[in-house]
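Q: Sequence in, structure out?
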Amino acid sequence: MAAKADIAAVRSDLANEFSALRFDITALETRLYRHLWIMAASIVGLTVALIKLIP
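A: Exactly. Output:
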């Protein structure tokens, strides 16, 4: 019976670890998308500025 309890405890620990990893990955994904949008907006702004400089 002790082995079953140990296995249940390990499963619970693994479930908690996977949950934390999913949260971390989601947070990183959000940051990545934010940075990509900022870079895209910068490229558009730079392009507009360069077009205005060309007569």
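The mean pLDDT is 93.
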